[in-house]
Amino acid sequence: MTIWQWRSAEIPASNGHGNARSIAQVGSILACGGKLNGKRLIASETVENAIKKQIAGRDPNLLYAPISWGLGFGLKNKILLKGTRSFYWSGAGGSFCVMDLDKKLSIGYAMNKMGGITSKDPRNERLSKVIWEIINQLEV
C-alpha cells in the first residue's frame, strides 16, 4: 500500500491526518459541546454520551495500560487529563488531543518526528503537564 492509498482510505479511528491546529480545532467542537464558531455540528447530548464510561481495564493494544473508555475516547489518564469532564485520544507517534467540557478547552499536538509508540510518549506528557500548570495559574 502506498502512502497515498493509506491517506485516501477510510479506516475509522486509524488514519486521520492533520497538524496541531486542525487536531485542536476538531477537538474544540467536542470541548464546546458540539459547536464551532456558533454553529451546532454535533448535538450536545451526543458529546455528553461520548464521555460516559462504557468499559474500563487494561488495553492490550496500548501496552496494557489501564484505561476507561467512553464512546471512542479515553476517559482516565492522570497525566493528560486534569479536569473532571476532560477526555482524550492519542495517535501514532505521539500526537494527541485533550478536550475539556468545563473549561471549553482543546489541546492538540502533532510532532515533527514520530515516536515509536501511541501512548506514554514523554513529549506529550511534558507538554500536557506544562499546559495544565499554565491553565491553573490563569484561573487563580
Describe what you observe in this structure:
The model has no long low-confidence stretch (mean pLDDT 82). It is globular, with a radius of gyration of 15 Å. The strands form three sheets. A three-stranded antiparallel sheet has the order 5-6-7. Strands 1-2 form a two-stranded antiparallel ribbon. Strands 3-4 form a two-stranded antiparallel ribbon. It contains four helices and seven strands, in the order ααββαβββββα. It has a single domain, classed as Beta-lactamase (3-Layer(aba) Sandwich), CATH 3.40.710.10. The protein has helices at residues 3-8, 20-31, 44-50, 122-138, and strands at 35-36, 39-40, 55-59, 65-69, 86-90, 96-100, 105-109. The termini are far apart. With 140 residues, the protein is an alpha+beta fold.
Short description:
The protein has 140 residues and is of the alpha+beta class. It is built from 4 helices and 7 strands, in the order ααββαβββββα.
User: Tell me about the biggest sheet?
Assistant: 3 strands, antiparallel
Give the helix/strand class: alpha+beta
| Low-confidence residue ranges | none
Q: What would CATH call the class?
A: Alpha Beta
Number of helices: 4
Q: Which descriptors apply to this entry?
A:
globular, 140 residues, Beta-lactamase, 21% strand, alpha+beta, 7 strands, 3-stranded antiparallel sheet, two-stranded antiparallel ribbon
Draw up the topology in text.
Layout (H helix, E strand, L loop, with lengths): L2 H6 L11 H12 L3 E2 L2 E2 L3 H7 L4 E5 L5 E5 L16 E5 L5 E5 L4 E5 L12 H17 L2
Antiparallel strand pairs: 1-2, 3-4, 5-6, 6-7
